[in-house]
Amino acid sequence: MIYIITGPSGVGKNTIINELSNHINIHFSVSHTTREKRQGEVDGKDYFFVSEEEFKNLIDKNFFIEFEQYGDAFYGTGKDQIKNKKEVILLDLEVNGATKLLKQYPHFIGIFIDIDNDSLKERLKIRGHDNSFIQERMKLANLQREKKHLYNFNIKNVDLNTSVKEIIDIIYDLEER
Ligand code: 5GP
């Protein structure tokens, strides 16, 4: 079973996914990206960090099941990430790539995570973004929300533990069938 988790940037998707890894045996797909490695990130674990040239070579070789440009960087999921895995597979994707993949593979399970606008604004502020960036992200979030109905599950991230439990329940419930 393959799960795609998505949602507007700032809704707490990363924290939820990190916490999930403490509770459930899952293969977290490792994407390729052209963005700079952030402090604490490990090549091959958080991402495969590659140059734009390497990324374009991989596109030409038909290596990716999907890829997108997000901000200044490219992000892509290698086909090898979803093949021959014993565990449940989880992909963490931005909304465009996630929605395209879900349309292409309707048997994948889509989970859309969101929060209300005030909380989103607050979280982006805490991350240190300026007002114009926050306005852009809020606009983008509203566009991304238009895709929400295409997802099998919508989760409102009010409380981390509740959201994590909801996702675990979804996975256990579907895996038992
Ligand atoms: P970040 O740069 O903060 O790690 O990730 C930025 C966005 O890219 C996040 O929303 C993340 O889910 C998304 N992302 C990570 N890997 C992939 C991928 O392989 N494909 C797509 N479409 N989005 C990705």
Ligands (ions, cofactors included): guanosine-5'-monophosphate
Into which percent range does the helicity of residues fall?
Answer: 25-40%
Can you list the strand order of the major beta sheet? 2-7-1-8-9
Specify the number of helices: 6
Structural class: alpha/beta
Strand content: 15-25%
Output the helix-strand order: EHEEEHEEEHEHHEH
CATH topology of the largest domain: Rossmann fold
Question: Which term fits the overall shape?
Answer: globular
Q: What characterizes the major β-sheet?
A: 5 strands, parallel
**Overall mean pLDDT score?**
95
Low-confidence stretches: none
Number of strands: 9
Name of the CATH homologous superfamily of the largest domain: P-loop containing nucleotide triphosphate hydrolases
- The value of Rg in angstroms is 16 Å
- CATH second-level architecture of the largest domain: 3-Layer(aba) Sandwich
CA-CA gap between termini: 11 Å
Q: Can you tell me the CATH class of the largest domain?
A: Alpha Beta
What count of structural domains?
A: 2
